Amino acid sequence: MRRILSILAGALLCVVPALADEGMWLPSLISQRIADMQAKGFKLDAEDIYSVNQASLKDAVVLFGGGCTGEVVSKEGLLFTNYHCGYSYIQRHSSVEHDYLKDGYWALKREDELPNPGLSVSFLDRMEDVSAIMNDAEDKELAAAELVKQATAGGKGLSASVEALYYGNQYFLFVYRVFSDVRFVGAPPSSIGKFGGDTDNWMWPRHTGDFSIFRIYADKDNNPAPYSPDNVPYTPKKYFKVSLAGVKEGDFTFIYGFPGSTQEYITSDAVRYISEVSDPAKIGLRTLRLDAQKKYMGQSQAVRIQYSSKNASVSNSWKKWQGEMKGIRKMKTVQTKKEYEAAFEKWAKGTRYEGITEKLADIYRRLEPFNYAREYTSESALAVELPQFASSYFSAQPENREAVKENFLKDYYMPIDKESFVALMTAYGKNVNEEFRPLYYEQQMALYGSEQAWADALFSSPFARGDYSDVENDPVYIFRREFTKYYNEQLLPVYRDLTAQITELYHDYMQGQMEFEPDKTFYPDANLTLRVAYGKVQGYEPQDGIYYHPQSTLTGIIEKDNPDIFDYDIPQALRDIYATGLYDDQPVCFLATNHTTGGNSGSPIINADGNLIGLNFDRVWEGTQSDVTFDPEICRNISLDVRYLVFVVDKVFHAGAILQEVEFVN
Ligand code: ARG
Ligand code: GLU
User: Fold this and answer.
1) Could you give the count of Cα atoms lying within 13 Å of 193 in the half-sphere of its Cβ?
2) Which residue's alpha carbon is at the smallest distance from atom 5 of ligand 1?
3) Ligand 1 pocket: which of 81, 201, 310, 601 to mutate (most atoms <8 Å of CB)?
4) Alpha helix (H) ranges present in 189-332?
5) Which of 601, 603, 626, 639 does the annotation list as catalytic?
6) 171 lines ligand 2 (CB under 6 A)
7) Are 476 and 386 in contact (CB under 8 A)?
């Protein structure tokens, strides 16, 4: 009977309409999804995506630096990624005489390609299910270390890690080849690469030319090697061909990349904490910092340059959290999860899963005040810049201190930091209960009477005035030391302990959910390992009565162009080329339904034939809850249309020589 039922269920599966585009799938298990992908238009096979026997598309995808994705696009190791992923390296090559941020850079000869100390890219060599070994192991850490040791023995540039999936229900070994000679080849000016800035960040319609170009170098035997002038361009096993055919609504797309972190299987309590407690609190605190930054950045060009990168990173999460919080509320995820948990518990009666959601709820109740204080402290007291600097200055080796100091001071403007301090500490006093504050805080407040007086004292200390001789006893350093100590000794241990208990329960809850819904395919949460997501080009309805089309064009850039607004001031060359009237419809960015998250920046977005059509760089604001809950109606990833990359390089900056080695197809 059971057998018949399961055959029936299998037969049913085939006629059930294809599922929505949620999911970040493991490449080595993509054969489980390939029928669905092909039904939706994909023309290649599982072996073309991931194979241990032959070159496959995975051999053209890299983890770029510590948290972005890139793709190889030529026989000679040419690499595309986002502008915002290459930004800090481009910044380091820039000076007043050669301002590559302002003017862009194009290495038309190999000698002009610039090395980037500290930058590496990693190719996934292979991945392997090691669950059996890990589950049998007495000591998991030891077992993982042993697996890593075996996997990396003898190979040049090999690195490996064992990662838990589904809260430890499955373990995979990932083996990478790491190349550390990666050179900067080219990028547009930031007025193209960051066009729209933070105004347009997380938004559609979007017109950002978010790309930069690098090249991977290897030794003469094509192996990873540290930078050397004798290194040669790397010959990849596989590279993407670039499609100039373009996209239209409904076209199949897929994304290959390194999504960082998602939490799709957490309970209603955890979701409620995110949308009702954590996000609102963090948004409030970041608003205070952004207000102080904005005030002074508006008054001085120099301060605007100093704070542009910090401002971008503070505002990036600030904006994302707002979308996430709104999205979770709009989708009523807390309610939906509550109902799901009730149904689960009904099913679980008498099984070993009975009561698991209540156990989770109980630990979450105990965790919440600690987690809140932990997050609040790190977004307030620990976010003040000068004490951060005092602490890194103090812990730096004496010979490095001068560099730490220079690095900090060049982008520091004290009035912003001091105003932030007053606002942040006032909020801290109001919103964190006394039992979760260090005694040090009460003492200082008793001593000074107000946050302002405290700030006046701190920001005129010897250290604040540039006398670094006794940093260890300086109030600025002590501020950091005391808050860090409280954080590390009072908040973190409880947080870690309860979180570990929660993870253990999730291990079982995850299993339980799989048994509860045997027909559902569960995908593992993102953890910065290589994944495939697939979907289609599609617009969306951000609000009642509005439909957003999935493609933007050069005309939209010109409509936004305004020399008086920094984020919208485009290079004259772009105005001139538009004026020819030949490029009104030049595509710039497009939307699709692929499930992505932070870390997918720079990921190749690929068409049904396996050719590159764009570079992923963002999601739409209304859909950022997809890290917690995916809504196929509204969750969209934003990609640069690769035809805009070609247009900018070739037509706007006449640097087409760089793309000569790229294989273009229709
Ligand atoms: N929102 C994108 C991401 O999360 C782009 C961030 C960089 N751009 C910016 N304007 N801050 O990384
Ligand atoms: N911009 C993000 C990144 O740096 C990608 C956007 C997202 O979070 O989906 O990875």
Assistant:
1) 26
2) 618
3) 201
4) 190-193, 197-200, 268-272, 279-297, 301-331
5) 601
6) no
7) yes
Would you say 58 and 44 are in contact if contact means Cβ atoms under 8 Å apart?
no
Ligand that comes closest to the CA of residue 595: 2
The residue whose CA has the least distance to atom 2 of ligand 2 is 598
Report pTM: 0.94
| Residue 146 vs residues 133, 156, 170, 411: alpha-carbon distances, Å | 11, 18, 17, 44
pLDDT value at residue 94:
85
**210 has catalytic annotation:** yes
**CA–CA gap between residue 440 and residue 597 (Å, rounded):** 39
Is ligand 2 within 6 A of the CB of residue 601?
yes
Residue at 571: amino acid letter = P
H/E segment holding residue 160: strand 158-165
pLDDT tens digits for range 229-239: 999 999 999 99
Beta-sheet pairing, 242-243 with 664-665 = parallel
With 50 as the cut, is the pLDDT of residue 264 above it? Answer: yes
41: left (phi over 0), alpha (psi -120 to 50) or beta: left
At residue 437, what are phi and psi to the nearest 5 degrees? -115, 145
Residue to mutate, 69, 307, 601, ligand 1, most ligand atoms under 8 Å from C-beta: 601
Residue 35, token pair as written in the block: 């029928």
CB of 596 within 8 A of CB of 616?
yes
Which amino acid residue places its CA nearest to atom 6 of ligand 1?
A: 316
Phi-psi region of 548 (alpha: psi -120 to 50; beta: other; left: phi over 0): beta
Whether the CB-CB separation of 175 and 158 falls below 8 Å is answered with yes
- Which amino acid would we find at residue 68? C
Measured between alpha carbons, how far is 311 from 517 in angstroms, rounded to an integer? 44
Q: Which residue has the tokens 């990028």?
A: 187
Return d(Cα 81, Cα 141) in angstroms, integer. 34
What long-range pairs does 27-31 form, CB within 8 A, spacing at least 24? 27/58, 27/124, 27/127, 27/256, 27/530, 27/531, 27/532, 28/127, 28/128, 28/129, 30/532
Does residue 84 carry a catalytic annotation? yes
What are the structural domain ranges in the chain? 21-120+180-258+530-617+626-665, 121-178, 268-515
What pLDDT digit, counting tens, does each position of 16-66 carry?
A: 444 578 999 999 999 999 999 999 999 999 999 999 999 999 999 999 998
Structure tokens at 472: 């260890």
Residue type, position 290, single letter: L
Nearest ligand to the C-alpha atom of residue 259? 2
d(CA 119, CA 217): 12
Number of CB atoms found within 10 A of residue 32's CB: 12
CATH of domain 21-120+180-258+530-617+626-665: 2.40.10.120
409 with 417: CB under 8 angstroms?
no
